[in-house]
Amino acid sequence: MRLLSATSVLLSAAALATVLGLGPVSRVVAGQPVPALAPSGSEQDEQVVVQIRARQFIPATVTLHAGRKTKLVFENQDAELHAFVPVGLFVGVNLNISGNGAPEFGTEGFKRVIIPSSGRAEITFVPEQPGSYPFFCDMPGHEMRATIVVDK
Q: What is the average pLDDT across 105-118?
């Protein structure tokens, strides 16, 4: 009986995934290929940081690129709670939220994340639809609004 090296197994799994139309493979778990979140290629992943300071989102307009894996980071530098409430951006989009914020989900998916003072929320996703998407903080008395623009 011939033993295969780990490299041979990984290459075989990647080739099989491609033949089966599963797309690029980022890793193999328990012998099964796991598709990558974003297309592989020369484009790098994006990371965009939005600071929350003096009851403002800084910058007020953020530009992302459709089809590119993105980590959207919110850093709350105020002494009070704030929330990130997106409008339409995450409809039908898979995402991962990390950091010390408190995410909330409803029947239509992600609703908002509450970010504590000196806290951070990281949302990793692939924006799919180009367009302009407003977001705001819905804490009582906060008049904080900004926009995410997704370019082609």
A: 95
